[in-house]
Amino acid sequence: MLLIIFASVFIFVLGYLAQTSGLCLVRGVNEAMAKRPQFLIAILLSGSSSWAILYFAQFNSIAINELTTGVTITMLIGGALFGIGTALNGGCSVSTVSKLVRGQCTMVFTIIGWLLAWQVGALVEFDIDSRASENYFTFLMPLNQRVLILLFVSLIILSFVLFTKTANKALWATMLVIGILAGFIFLVEPHWSPSSVLKSLSNGFRHGGTLWPNVAQLILVFSLVLGMFSAAIYTKSFVLEPGNVKSYFKHSFAGALMGAGAWLAGGGNDFQILVAMPTLSLGSVLVVLCMLAGIYITLKLVQPKNTC
What we know:
globular
């Protein structure tokens, strides 16, 4: 219970930082397209500081729920679909929640579309390589080697914190903190991310029983939302925007693409970047690259408004 309390405090802070920093993969790609790649690079490397948590777990003999997967074509297709849906939605997994908390009611329809798409995917029930087990992301590299690689990347980021312009200092420092927080939360509940909770909700609707989100997931997602809402109130960015019928259909469709993509890829961008990529999973890295490609192509072709 004590660990859940600590994790709740940490995820509250994570939610606050995600809201105030504008953590969003679409924004990152947009800025990279405008020749300002720092934000996107910071997001992609945000999980690198989780080495501290890996070392802490090893030192205290805490078992790590190691998650992996091999690389499959369906995962890559899923990543691309998720990227397209994310660009059309104007926000990724985390930013969908943060924008909803800021008062953008259309994000409710993104979530509904996501859940419906996952239900359809479950009904299809065709065999996908590496999806028979929950243990997608198997580590092939010894823990000590992973820690050293992540530590090296963290030191590079720390150098940016110490030696770059003031605006970038805050960005890189925030991403380091987010990585540490996400790593600790992972020790308590591996499926804490918003996309993982939506997956549990989808499974619960279809099969019921123990597949519904567990108590830890519900407590953590509530704390995440509370942190985001606190940031929205503090920064006075909360504005109720009910949207219109056209936007409801648009975000439902975008959410359906995101849900289908997350189902095929094994998780949304929040799970891939903050949970799977720090394990140095090749599959996760390739999925994220496909997400970025989907976002980039969609932004070039459609140029959606109201992005992060």
